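Good morning C.,

I know you're traveling, so I'll keep this short. The sequence:
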Amino acid sequence: MSLANALIRHRRQYAFGALTVLLHVLVFDWFSGQLGRRREDAAPVVRAPLLAQLIEAPRPAPPAPPLVPQPKLNPPPPLPEVPPEPIEPIEPPPAGPDTAPASDPHAVSPGADSAAAVSADAATAQEGAAAQLASGQGRATMAAAGVQSQPAPPPQPPPPQQTAPAPAPLPQQRVYKVDLPPPAEITLDVARTDANGTQWHGEALLSWERAAPGYRVRVEAGIRVVFTRVNLLTLSSEGTVGDEGFIPILMTEKRRGRAATATHFNRKDGTLTFSASQAKYALVPGTQDKASLPLQLAAIARGDAKQLSGTIDILVGEDRDASVFSFTVAGQEQIDTRLGRLATWHLVRPPKPGSYHSRLEVWLAPGYGWLPVQIRNVEASGAVTTQTASNIVMKEAGSP
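The tokens, ready to paste straight into the viewer:
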């Protein structure tokens, strides 16, 4: 072997040995770095997400608005004081043998004050007719099946009729000076608003005339249909006149779809009776019916306007019952009518528990002989009926 080949072989061995040593150094260096680290540092840590929620902070309440003082309303001017006439107590007339002891009057139908009220008794009559028809059909079916009906038992006598108590005597009853208003025919526009808001219009007529030996009053109320008027209510009052004013003897009432009724003022035995009920009352001076009442108020005002003070108590006979109407003067007012703006005295009868539940108002016009130029009835249900004069015709000359 030559010296050159030996040198080359030794160089290769030295180079391979040096490379081997270098590789071992690198491996040892890498292992030394890994031996100092923790396992947790080798892998990335996955953290749970952090949730955040925005909560709206409560808003402060707005400051209260400053109180604004309300303007004070000036009270209406007081009415001129009218000294009342001295009140003279009068003993009520003795009751008849059939008259019950005096007590509070029975309740009166609130709709009776309204001149345009409509009766619903026709429905009751139809129900009664339907019941009779059903009974007849049942008997016919039994006869066809050969079943004989048992004879009906004899009718039992009706129980004894109870006499209604008379109204309590008026305490310290006032005696009024009266002057009858001039006979006239008053046409009134009727406007009604039911409790449910339904509105309708009609026309009424109030007339009175002298008739031997006394007077006759007639009241008609109805609704307008095209070119005619359908009467819903007709009142008629007849009687005499005297120091008490109007003295009714008979009042009749006829409502559409309902039989006529009569109220009898029995002057001989001093009782007040009704064809529609068994009630009986003792007559007292100044007793009126529904038709003559507004005219009697006019007669009291015409007798002396000073009498329109305090309480004006009048016993009023209606179709089935009677009660004491208590009026007070609400004041002097200007009202608008188709006759123009009229100066009136406003009288009010408020509801009276246990007797009547409606509010009755009457406006008397001194410029027209103190005749009633407006009448309003406010029922307990909230229905309102207002009658306002649209024309007045005097039947004979008479001073206001």
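Safe travels,
E.
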